[in-house]
Structures are given as C-alpha cells and as structure tokens.
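[scheduler] slot 2 assigned
[scheduler] job type: sequence-to-structure, two independent chains
[scheduler] chain ordering preserved from manifest
[runner] begin chain α
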Amino acid sequence: MDLLPVNGAALADDPRALEAVRAVGLRYGFDYTDDAAVTALLAERKRALEAEQRQPAAWLGVLALTAGLLLPFVVPMVPALTDRLFAALGAAGCLLVVGVALVVHARTRWKRAR
C-alpha cells in the first residue's frame, strides 16, 4: 500500500530531491527515504489523530455548550424555574464558559497531534 505518491526509489533517481530530503531528515532525525519507516510513522500518526478526535473533553465540551445555549430558552417555559431566572442564567453562563474551555482544550490537543 503506497501512502505517498513518491517513494524512496523515486527520490533516489533525482539527486537534488534526494539531497533536499536528506537535509530535512537530518534536521528532524528521521530518514524520509526509508519507505517502511515513513509508512509506519504515518500509520502511527493517523492512529494518534483518530484517538484525539474521540477524547471525552470534546464530547463534554460540546454537550456543555449545547446545554448552556439552550438553558436560557428552556427556563421561561418551565414554571418552577421562572422564580430562579438569574440562577438559571448564571448556570447557563457557567456551562458556556466550561464548554468553550473544553472545546478549546480538545482542539489544541487535536492540532498538536496533527
């Protein structure tokens, strides 16, 4: 299975490209002309990226954002909560802050894994 359109043999055919790829490889400490190592690296990074997408912080953040956005509209419909309107709006604000923080945290981890 070829993950890249260019493999190590194609790079070896062009001396300028091979020199540039080896210079980048020296800078990062990785041999980018080794097809097996590059395939293993890409597969590992793909697994790490997929794992980051399913973090609980992302799900909880989206859930908290949704609840924080819907709560101000639901409170006036429930007669028992209309007496505590400011408390419900305060809870909605807290849910929004927590939701934004969790979503930003999850996105930062995802970008780092990418």
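[runner] end chain α
[runner] begin chain β
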Amino acid sequence: MRGLIGAAGLLACAVTAASARVDNDPDAYVVNFYTGGGSDGVLFAAGTANQQCTNLGAPDISVVSASPGVTLSIRPGSFVVTGTDYGYLVCEGQRMQGTIVTGTGSGQAVIKVTYPPVGQWYTHTLTLPAR
C-alpha cells in the first residue's frame, strides 16, 4: 500500500510541475490586437497574436459607412505589423496573417474591427486620397 501512495504522490507532483510551467507563462495568455497597412495598396490590416507572435485568429472587419464612390475590399492576407489597437508591440515589423482592407475611390470610410477571441472591437476611419 505504501508503494501505491508514494507513486500517486510522485505522479501528482509531476502533473503539478508540468501545469505550473504553463500557468506561469504570461506570454501564453496575453492577447495583442495588431494593425498595419499604408503600403503595397493595403489601406488597413489587423491581426491577433500572443506575446510570442503566434497567430490567434483573423479579425472580422465590416464597413460601417463610406463616402460615395469609395469601394472597399476585405479579405484574409498577410501584413507587416506597424501598430496596435490593444497590447504590446512585441511583433512590430513582423509579417502576420490577418485581415486586410484595400480600396478604390476618394473620400472616407469607417470600418469596425472585431478581434478574436473575445470580440473586442474598435472603429477606424480610413481616408482614401484623390488620385
């Protein structure tokens, strides 16, 4: 019986140590909402990642309003991180998968960006210059 209790105790210690490593890793739980765009025809881009720049899902982007003649295209794609809606800029300068916005026309458009995993959202005003 004593051997069983000793083995169970060792197993419990091993499980506790393994889970402590995960629970004490703050990078695994921090969610950053990244933005980019302004070059290569991309007006705006957004992505979600943790502190280790691991992608946590593509944001949903919708058009709230747009000037007459402004047409936006929203699709999955990669972009270079240049800013953040929330979080730390640990991934600045890195290429990330997310959602990108391109457009034609001149005027302004307001977009709503909803980030996974909890649905936090922000609006952005995009200005398309006259060409």
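[runner] end chain β
[qc] chain β: Residues 2-23 form the longest helix (22 residues).
[scheduler] slot 2 released
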